[in-house]
């Protein structure tokens, strides 16, 4: 156990504000604590002599050796109570009382003071505005909910207290147990990252589940989740996913949330299994707690009913699992064991008249096949089959092979006892076979997370000082938006750009063109911080031959002046022609999320970004394998690999550009937004043809 | 009721093969019939005097006035039994016996004879290989399943008998009732189309549910479903969706299935709500049977718990419903009725201490709002709230407003009674609020189906004879694949093509170019049925100036000869240049599905088809609104509407091309496959620049 060992495993708990008043929170908590807790319960309430049979103390400091103070006094005296506890040496506090950050400026002030107090005394504080905490391992129920959880190996945190009561009530009805339960409340001190870290070190927690509306510190959460998720699965509903949901969440928690895209990328990079629904949260949590991980993706389906077998096969087709191909040996064994009408290929149909022995034989043969990583046992009720006996066989065979199994014993009352037996043994069972398959697929997904190798992002040798000088010179000009004049910034970070020069006289333009492309064509672009869409005003000339460079220079400047007489014109960029025809236009960009910091974006340019929104994101810094993944996960990825008879582009060069971009935006928090568009990828490398960025001068 | 009125509502049913042998199917059926059936049950078995207290007759012809014969005799004597029944005037037969089409050539022959017998005597035959049928309206359970269904307004057909037993068992446990239930068996005579049509006319059937692995006659099914689906919702799981599932289905039913894409298009055009899972099938069926349709898309969420409220809002965001905006008046009413801390905007959070009266007030106000089309009542268990009382209020208010409501009373045992009360009143209730919202969204989707106006496909004035002559002349040349030489086929059907001519001499090429583009450039293409990929062998020349036409002619012919010396070369096509730059390359195509006939395809050309597979399909014939939908539903649709600063293309011209193409392929079943690629769409119209088709000479 980690730093919160005492919080979850106290020997003595004091209820500060204990009372026997009917219907009060103080009474509910005291009763819940008295019910099962293995340690001592102490009542603190200066207005009482006795509470529910306990001697009532005037102050928490009056009782020795208290490990945890559960505070339920009215808001104005919460801080005093905590101070008293801290001074008595108590380090772990659960604040049930509401009326803090969630309720106006007075509450917000109180919450700030609570945070300061916690820092001063190095306190672990749950809440405020929390339903409380549970640890079934020691019978601790320090909540005011109506029911205590059953014992289990799932630890669950929730940003909604009401949801905790609902879940515990529901889970008790379904033999689903918990190890720890935490109602996070306002997360003034302890937040999701703390509990993830704690449960990651807790041998009694097999799975971490969370309902979150935001995370307090995006980067800290990613870091702690990444450390834990390889060993302990973390499954999270992060609500406020949709626009409507996000605005509902904001009005509920008052938090400034990061963008949905940032959460999506962050949770994925942290190895968190993100789910969208309560059903998936507990389906996935249950199977992760109850079943081993599959060693391969092949699923065997064993059924007494062809039709449902087809539906289950469809569900496998929808998942990232596959239907296992049986070995010849397995097929032969099925042929020996099953009647002639049976289907000995996957899905194995053992025919409607199958007794339990035939089911058992078939499952045994299937689980022994080296291509089978998981199995679905699928049955419809028949006169010849005892569901209870089938459940027993499935439990035994699952244990014998230690291969994950999910069940669908279809039916209502006829399946109830069998389903109870299966779920008690940790084998999930659903009426809908698609749910069984989905759960197995969650095991596969988690196995893939466990298999990830974390690669430290590479640090390239760059000219950081040159980059700083470019940004600072922009700041000195009081410019927040930069365009092609910032190509040097890319050069400084080793991102390939076409040869180019910014000139501010006709003759210099001619000289530059002569140097860049002797006798060849060049591209010319107006350079002005005030003109964002150069193409729209005819500010870009492509394929300019040597004899027209001078006139084109004049022409571009005139157009810019006509378009916006007061625009600052820095000059004209003369640039090497990049052969767009042999290349693919991509875009590499960055935006900075309030919660998670810089996010690196990749996609194909043009319609792919603008119309199809076919892009992908990663939190910076981006490692090499991670940048490579970005290239492969966009829909248009085949175009990079040389679709339609073209040569594949040099992916390595694009990958390195993304890494170098990631380093640049990590080094300079002043860069708020940056787009390399297009980044032209050809078989010979990538080149950044244009760039646009926004800086925040305060951050320099 | 329709043609199957007697089948489902007989006065006298004979069990042919009735027996009292333990564990036999004949006994199970006789017992099930004796249990609740309002009419008479007659036993037929020449080897018995009495069966289960019934006099046993030697032949079904020996008893007068039998309406339905349920046949359970061994396979070899099934046909005799049916013939006897037919001769006794019985028109409705349920064949339980297996050993027909599903089992070898002997069985297949038997099934063919059964079909002939049915045609000869005009029989309605269910099965063979069926579990039987039920009609709870008259207590008819002519199945050998272990349980009878409860009474309800859902009629359910299933291509899997095992699934019927599972569903009935499960549904009985959940207060879900059925009106009719049919196990379709091998569908030798009566198939899904017959039952859809029957139930569409049945006032006791509110919803039709189906589990199908194939349909017997694709076009007939679409027609009957389209007739019915406007009045009675049809929800179907069509399994074998995925590649793995399709091959499992083929081995299960032995049917040659249509393609998944064809089913998808056909079910959609037929107004069938297609679902992928058993859970959705019954969730959607239940709400469609229990709740009215929403008059608008706005959903009100009323909850005592903020967190679950956010999750529910996310679920609304995921759906095609929207969060209702309340009127000012409604907001004021909430402000008056609710405590200060409440959220009076949607989702309405009435705060954790809400008693049932506050829930009732809030729901009442919400349902009265003119922007609210449906409501979700969402509660977590609290000490102040009685779930049972809440359920009563919800049932009353739902009935009062006749607005659809779904509920999520979270919890386990604490919610059981309340949930039972709600579901008895037809209000769906789930632990996961996402499921409640999904169900409401199914109501919306069905409302949209009901709102569809069916437009008869237009018939254009075309030169059918010219088209026939082109196809027949190809057949005379024994050519199955046609290319640009078939452009005239498009002309005959009024599909715009660039001006062009096929020539077979150098001088004719020069003359043709002079006529088509005096002093301008032309496109030239080799014309050969043996060269499919003209571009790959350099068989296409674009932008040929007048002075090069002659040489280019020679060059193209030489290249073709070099590439394939024995190729039949029909000549060279000289074609008007089409300005690809101002246009969007689209593709209009057709392929013929074995089950559903011609399907018309539309998409953008190039990468959109090849890499992104961004296409859409319709069964021909395609009406104008339907063709217009095709243009709008591809992902790249914005490109047609003028994305990126371009002028929108003339969509009407593309739409008309799709309609005319649809007419062409409907008129000529000999056209097996046809692609117009590219069909160039510009602001001024669409032009078919190239075409390729395959014909089946047998069909001419």
TrEMBL record, chains A, B:
Domain CoA-binding: 7-100
Domain of life: Archaea
Any Pfam family matching the protein: Succ_CoA_lig
E.C. designation(s): 6.2.1.13
The UniProt record lists the keyword Phosphoprotein: no
GO molecular function: acetate-CoA ligase (ADP-forming) activity; ATP binding
Matching SMART domains: CoA_binding (SM00881)
UniProt entry keywords in alphabetical sequence: ATP-binding, Ligase, Nucleotide-binding
Catalysis: reaction(s): acetate + ATP + CoA = acetyl-CoA + ADP + phosphate
Residue spans crossing the bilayer: none
Gene3D superfamilies documented for this protein: ATP-grasp fold, A domain (3.30.1490.20), ATP-grasp fold, B domain (3.30.470.20), NAD(P)-binding Rossmann-like Domain (3.40.50.720), Succinyl-CoA synthetase domains (3.40.50.261)
Group of enzyme by EC: ligase
Protein name: acetate--CoA ligase (ADP-forming)
Lineage: Archaea, Methanobacteriati, Methanobacteriota, Stenosarchaea group, Halobacteria
